[in-house]
Every structure is written in C-alpha cells, then in structure tokens.
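Issue 218. Parser rejects a valid record. Input:
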Amino acid sequence: MIYLLFNYLALTGKLMERFFAKSTTGSMPEIVDLDKLTRDPSKRKRLTDFNVNQHEEIRRKYLAWGAYQPCPSKFKPRWIGKSKRYFNPEWYDLHRNWLEYSEVEDEAYCLYCYLFRDNIKGNKPGHDAFVVDGFVNWKKAVERFATHVGDRDSFHNKALKKCEDLMRTEQSIPVALYKQTDLEKNEHLIRLNAAINVCRYLLHQGQPFRGHDESKESTNKGNYRELMDYTIMHNDVIAKALKNAPLNNQLLSSTIQKDITECFAEEVLSCILKELDNGVFSLLVDECRDVSNKEQMAVVLRYVDTCGLSNERSVGVLHVKETTSAYLKSKIDFIIAKLGLSLQQVRGQGYDGASNMAGEFNVLQAKIMRENSSAYYVHCFAHKLNLVVVAIAKKIFDVGDFFDMISLLVNVVGSSCKRKDKLGESHREEVRKAIGKGEIATGSGLNQEISLQRPGDTRWNSHYTTLSSLSKMFTSVVKVLEYVEEEGSDATKQRQASGLLKYFRSFDSAFFLHMMMIILALTNGLSKTFQRKDMDIVNAISDVESVKRELDKLRSQHGWNSLLSKVCSFCDKNDISIVDMEKEYVNPKKPRQRTGINNEHHYRVDCFFFAVLDLLAEELNRRFNEVNNELLCCMSAFNPSGQFSHYDHEKLLKLAILS
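Output the parser choked on:
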C-alpha cells in the first residue's frame, strides 16, 4: 500500500507541475545545463520558467552552491533621504544561509523564498521585495530582515523547512522506495538461493522434483517442496523471507523449477565447452524410447582436456519424431550449432550397429563423413564384443539351448519370494557346512550372500555373473527344483522343474557351464576394460590381441585338461555321472549308428570346445579389424608428415570411441 501511495503522490505532483507549466507558458521549456545557471539573484529567471522535470535538480543545485554573498572592496552607495547608505557585509554573518546580494543592481534577496515562492500558499509578507523586486532600504535593513524571517509559521520559515527536507535525501520518496526495494531484493535473493540449493541437491542425486499431489493437505508434496519445507523449518532467515513474500513470488511453481534446472544445464554446458576449448572431439549418438513411449536421442561428446585426460560428457537429449538418418543428421546439426561447434571438429563417430546409423551408404555416419572425411566411424567396442558372444549362442545350437535352459531356470527358481528365500537359506546352510569342514576359507569380504541373478538381454557379460552364481549355488538350486517338482501348485512349473533337473544333472550341462564360464570370464574382463574412461584405441586393440592369445592357449592340451579337471570335480561334488572320454561317442539322436570317434574327440574337437574357440576367434578378427586398421594407419601417417605433434597424435588416439 505504501508503494502505491508514494507513486500516486509523486505522479500527481509531477502532473500538476506539468499542467501549470503548460498553462502559463504554453510549451515545455528546454532542459538547461545546471552548471550554467546564473548566480546573481537579480538575473535569475523564475523557477516556473524552467523545465518542470528540472525543478528539484535546480533547487538542489542552488542550495548546494549556497546564498550568493559577494564581498567587493567597496559597495555601491545609495541615497536614502539626504544620506548615503551602503550594504553592510556584516549582515551576512547575521543571515548567513539565506541573504543574497546583487552587485549589478545593489539589491538584497532571499534564496529560500526564491526557490519555493510558487509552492507555498498563504500570507507572504515581504515576498516581492526579497524575491522579485529586490530589497534596497539599507536604513531599515535590520528591522526588515527580522520581519521577513518572522515567526515559526512564516512564509520564510516554511520555505526554509522545505529546503531542509529537500536536502535531507534519506527522507525523500525515491530513497524510501529504494530502501523498500532493496529489502525486497535481499529477501528475494534469500528465497532464490534456497530454491537453487534445493535444485542443486536434487539434480546431483538424480531425483525427481514433482509429486503426484502438491496441495497443502498432501502428506507428500514431492521432493522439491518437501525439501524446501525442511529447509524453511531449520532456517529462520529463509522462513522469514518466505513469509513476507507475495503469493506470486514463492518460487515453488514447476515453471521456476524448470527455469532453475535449465540454468544449471547452461552452466554445465559452458563448463564442458570451456574444457573442450574449441578443440576436436568425437561424437557418440544413440536413441531409445522413454517411459512415455517417445523416441529420444542422446548426444555425447568425447574429448581430451588440457591435462591429456579423455572425457565423455552428455550435451543433450532431443526428442526425435523419426529415426531416419536424414532426420537424425538434422538434429545433430542443430545441437552442434547450438553449442557453437562445427562438424569439421569431429574426429570420430560412435553408434550402435543399426542399419540407419552404421551402414556405408546414405546413413548417418556416411552423411557426416561426406562433410568431414576425418570423422571416422568406430563401432562401440563393448557392443561389438557383445555381438561376438551373441554369435556363439546363435550359431552353435547346443550353446544356445544351454542359455535357454539357464533363462528358464532363473524364471522357475526366482518366480516367487518363497523360492528365493528357500534358495538363500539353503545356500547359507551349505556355506556353514563347508566352513565347518574347512573346505572354504573365511575372512573379510569372503562368502558374501549371493543370488541367482537374471542375465540381461543386451549385455552378455551379465551371463558370467549368472553362471558363476549357479556354480556356487548348484546344490541349493537342485533342492529348490526338487521342492518345486514335488510340492509346486502349478503343474506347468512342476514339469519345467522336472525337465531342468534332468538337464542340469547331465554331464553336458556341467561341461557347457564351465566352458562358457572360462570364455565369458575373458570377454567380461575385456568388456570392463573397454568401458574404462582412460582407454584409447591402441590399448583396446592390444587387449583384444591378448584375449586371442589366451584363447590359443585354451586350445592346447593343458587348457583342455584344466577344463576337464574342473568339470569332473564339479560332477563328483554334485553326484553327476562322468563321461568316459576314451569310450566311443554315442549320438543320442542315432544311438544304433556308430560314430567312429571317442567322447574326448566329440567334446574337444567336433562339436564343442574347439568349435566355440574357433568361432570366437573368427568373430573377434572380423569385428575388430573393419575400420580399426584404417584408423590407426591414418593416425600414424600424421606424425611422419609433421602435421601433428606427439601430443596431438596421442590426443587423436584417445578420441577413438570405445564404449
């Protein structure tokens, strides 16, 4: 209310002054230079003759100068009656602040009355003498000066009061408004800082902001409002600032939350661009559907900072209406331009193996290569390795059947909480027995509680964890299957449990279990290596070659004996019949037909061990030699020509996309 009153008074006064000026002069006077105002009181224009917007500035200027009180060596004489009279400079001391003297006209004036002669109503004794005409009766000067000053309510004292108020700036309306505005600004900053801190915490923790019901009656208003209420409860300063805030400035709306989040995103992007320092980078793009069934495209930049460390930073997630290569290319152009970068800075592309991304003609990588021939496409190494293992399961039917049975086993054993609890209790009991017999060691971090983890459909390295858990919990898994077979309420589950018991009590399942554990252990370690942030393409290719050498060692007699020893030990422990490797192999599909080979040849050469190793080596050679050799040769060719320094060469190698 006080703001409206101040604004109304100020606006009304200005309008009245403008109206008065226009009604008397007919037009608005021009703005004058305050430093060029006339000091001599007899030469001054009336205040109303100045521009109305300068009245207060002119008054302050004259008051800052003070009364015009010249002291010439000899004042002009004036005949009053038969005597010469002079202006007495001692009068300055008696009326120091208001008395003025004009040397030109030899007249005395009042500064205060001049400044406010048109703004004060009522009786104005001596008004014209000390403001318009000038006072010259030096004989009665002392008496007339006292009469002019008058009592407390005189015109002169009212003008004096207005001058004092005008120069007391802390009491002016603009200053009062400024003080009030400054208080509002401080309270607004307190509320804003609280909102920013809450958003920073939620963003750092990756938590959602909104709640299903954010009304005052709700018991859970969402993370943002609940955390803001908690902050207010424990901080009196923030509580006071929020209490005094108007309803439309609470900083609690979803729009404010989005604005603050966008500001954080811009700050993060600016830091990323600062790290990039307008250098070269690699482009990683992938798309998938979110929970709302909308196709989203994530864009990531891989670059090497000034410290020589490779970084991967997400710079945006864009909604794409279609997944054609042309549309994806337009979206990439948009975000690259938004960041102030150029496709000419791209030194690598990394996508999955989808046909619209990785093909050779009219696909995304080809379109970018046409604009920048240095933007080499490198298929994600971790994804490539995943496809290598997938190829084994697809091309060797017995291995594929084994993993199908593993998936079915996880579904049957882990389909209910009761079975999971039974599996965990049984395994803990087995561990206690083994510790009592001294079969397993004890210590910090050993014998942790495990479960039969469900393997992922797109990450085959997760199968290693599943197989490892199965080998450790095999006895407990068999007990749960027996329980389901005997006491299961669902006939389908009973039949599945019976079939699983028959399969996993066979030598073939034990052989596949340990063979795939060895192979997946190698590929799992390689997959983790590929996903390290400091890995570059040279070391990645070197690690692939190391895995190939390990696979060659498995082909040796020592590798075969090691595998067979583990399988036989597992079979002895779990009462599984061991196949005699020297006997003739009998084909279960044609039991009466002689095969002419023994079991060792069958398991080692024809069907399983060598077949899997050969296929694995073939897939590794095929998938990790398509573009990599060309890229390495291209990078190596830069050094002899002198186009890149040794540091730039290492920087380009680190830019190659691995994961």
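Fixed in the parser; the record now loads. The beta strands are 78-80, 83-85, 99-102, 107-110, 281-289, 295-304, 310-319, 346-350.
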